[in-house]
Each structure stands twice: as C-alpha cells, then as structure tokens.
Predict the 3D structure of the following.
Amino acid sequence: AAVSGLGRINDDGAGAIGKAMSDSNEGVRLSAVKAASKINGFNDATSVAKLMGDSSAVVRKNGIELLETF
C-alpha cells in the first residue's frame, strides 16, 4: 500500500520503490514497478533491469514495459 501511494504522489520515497522491487513478496514487487511507472523522472534502471529474472511472469512483463520508457 505504501509503495503504490508513492506512485500516486510522484515520489520514489528516497529509493524505497527500487528496494521494494527486490522484496520477497510478488505483490510488493508488482506494486513497486507499477508505482515507478507513474513517477516522472524515475531513473533506477538497475532495479528495474533485475526484474527481468523475476520468478513472476507478470512482474517481468511490467518490468519490460517500464524499461521501454527509459
């Protein structure tokens, strides 16, 4: 919930979204990548690129879509 709130206010939470992308919970990772897509100037491409090896196909797909915006 907190991660998606950061996306709504256009704030990466001082790196919190990038950290959430490596959370053990798939839902948290998915929320993080979706929130990042809403943030103007989100530039943590390294954290997004790591999602390419995620165990969840949905997280990988969303990560690819986000990488395409860089």
